[in-house]
Amino acid sequence: MDKTFLAIKDVALKLGVSDKTIYRMLNENQLPFAVKIGGQWRFRADAMEDWINAQTNTETGNRRINSDITVHKAIENGTVIYRVQGGNRDEAIDELLSAIPYSASFDKKAIKISIFANESLVSSSLKGIAFMTPSVERPVFFERTMLIVAFLEEETDFKAMDDIKTSIIFLTLPANRAEQAIIDMKLRRLSMDNEFIEGIKLHMTRKELLSFIQKKEGEIFSKRP
What we know:
- By secondary structure, the protein is α/β, with parallel strands linked by helices.
- The protein contains nine helices and eight strands.
- It has a five-stranded mixed sheet with strand order 4-7-8-6-5.
């Protein structure tokens, strides 16, 4: 095939999604530069690469780094969503992103592309909780670091390595790479604490959840003499 064109599977790989998702995006006119050649969809390679880079903002993000960013503060910046529906991981993410108020700087499509660039390699879900974050190779940055906590209506198969179905999503939306790394590290450490895992699964109210996480962060990350 002419290397100036990409097939469905090539675009799916670049975006980190399934072939099925690409077909759906085509049906909804979400993908530009698509033409049919010999009855098969093909995409201009150079144009698609430019479009993907534009969708997944490759800027370095807010350079004013808050090295003291905490998980509970990131949730205060973000939101807590209950009864998120979806029969699979793809649908659950769509539902989650649709529940977040849209703004001019909030590109849901770019976020999903970046998230799935990570999730297509290995699921972030363990012990029934998915800790999702944009890909460092296809970064998406925001005015401030936010955490979206979503409680799913039903346990859903996220293809986790431990085969436990997912019931909760923590989605990090970072302001910059440094704060993304800090939140990722803190969530990884918190996830090692059984009390944290069991507490999160109680589906607390937003106020209770923030108080609980602040308490656990204080216990685990308190500065020692």
